[in-house]
Design brief:
four-stranded antiparallel sheet; mainly beta; single chain; disordered C terminus; 238 residues
Length: 238
């Protein structure tokens, strides 16, 4: 993309699915990786492409989805919207959230206070101030009883209860006790956890493989190397 082409836009977002959001004169559209304008800047707002579709807000302030050719695939009629993941997207209508498929069909009833995108076949949903998980048929798999949840990765999900974090499996079993101040997702079978203001690492069997003594775990990769016996004697922001 040339300097002149860059100057043409007020804002250029990151690329996703081969296209990037751009803003021009207060309106949003998309360019490809060569800088070519592939979707006209005519939307009041937009989100990145995911699974071939992007959320856009029309002149009526409502949200829908377009494809990479700019075709309106799902009508702009929703109050709010997230992105497609595993074939479904959370959408808000009349104050409640549910899910639609890529044809715009309602798949899961609009009855939740908020919803995350699907990951590993389950999704976190909020109802009456508490969080749980449902499947793609809308079945309540894990009761809404947590203060907060994060998506499942590697079969486990971070959950918050009584101001502390732990992990559950897809059957709702408490695999890691809610006793940490903060946690992150499992990656390569390890998860960063924070206790008494310090970070360390646990495995899926709840073993403390790296002691909670680090102020700033710079990357999960570095903690993993410590867990595997590498970089011995090297601190991470001690």
């Amino acid at each position: 993309m040339s300097i002149n082409e860059i100057k043409e836009y007020d804002y250029i977002g990151s690329f996703s699915d081969g296209l990037a959001t751009v803003r021009k004169a207060g309106k949003w559209g998309f360019i490809d990786e060569t800088g070519k304008q592939v979707i006209e800047c005519k939307y009041n707002d937009c989100n990145f492409f995911s699974e071939g579709l992007a959320a856009v807000a029309g002149i009526n302030g409502k949200w829908g989805f377009i494809d990479k050719s700019g075709n309106q695939v799902v009508e702009c009629k929703y109050d709010d919207i997230v992105f497609f993941s595993e074939g479904l997207a959370p959408v808000k209508k009349d104050g409640k959230w549910g899910f639609i498929d890529k044809s715009g069909n309602q798949v899961i009833e609009y009855k939740y206070d908020f919803c995350h995108p699907f990951l590993e076949g389950l999704v976190g949903v909020e109802k009456d101030g508490k969080w749980g998980f449902i499947d793609k048929s809308g079945n309540q798999v894990i009761e809404c009883k947590y203060d907060a949840v994060q998506p499942f990765l590697e079969g486990l999900a971070p959950v918050k209860k009584d101001s502390k974090y732990g992990f559950i499996d897809k059957s709702g079993n408490q695999v890691v006790e809610c006793k940490y101040e903060e946690v992150s997702h499992f990656h390569n079978s390890f998860a960063p956890v924070k206790k008494d203001g310090k970070w360390g690492l646990i495995d899926k069997k709840c073993n403390q493989v790296v002691e909670c003594k680090y102020n700033n775990p710079q990357t999960l990769f570095e903690l993993e190397k410590l867990a595997k016996g590498k970089n011995k004697g090297k601190g991470l922001g001690e």
